[in-house]
Specification:
This protein is of the alpha+beta class and about 70 residues long. It has one domain. The protein has 2 helices and 3 strands. β1 and β2 form a beta hairpin. The relative contact order is 0.21.
Length: about 70
C-alpha cells in the first residue's frame, strides 16, 4: 500500500495534510485521522494515510505532537 500511495503522489506538486480528532462515544476511545487531499488529472482525490488511537484531548498541540511523534 505504501508504494501505491507513493506512486499516486509522485507527480503532485502540492498537497494539504489534514488531521481530525474525534471520540467514539460508545467506547470512549479517542482517534486521529490523517488525510491528504489533492487534484490529479482535474479530479479531486483524497487518500487516508492513517487512523490511530490517541490518548488525551484533541487540542492543536496534542494533534501536532501525535503527528510528529513527540
Amino acid at each position: 500500500m505504501f508504494m501505491k500511495v507513493k506512486e499516486e503522489l509522485l507527480m503532485i506538486r502540492s498537497v494539504c495534510v489534514m488531521a481530525d480528532g474525534w471520540t467514539d462515544r460508545y467506547h470512549g476511545c479517542s482517534y486521529i485521522g490523517i488525510r491528504v487531499p489533492f487534484i490529479k488529472d482535474r479530479k479531486y482525490r483524497l487518500i487516508t494515510l492513517g487512523c490511530h488511537a490517541m490518548v488525551g484531548n484533541h487540542t492543536g498541540d496534542a494533534l501536532a505532537a501525535h503527528m510528529t511523534g513527540l
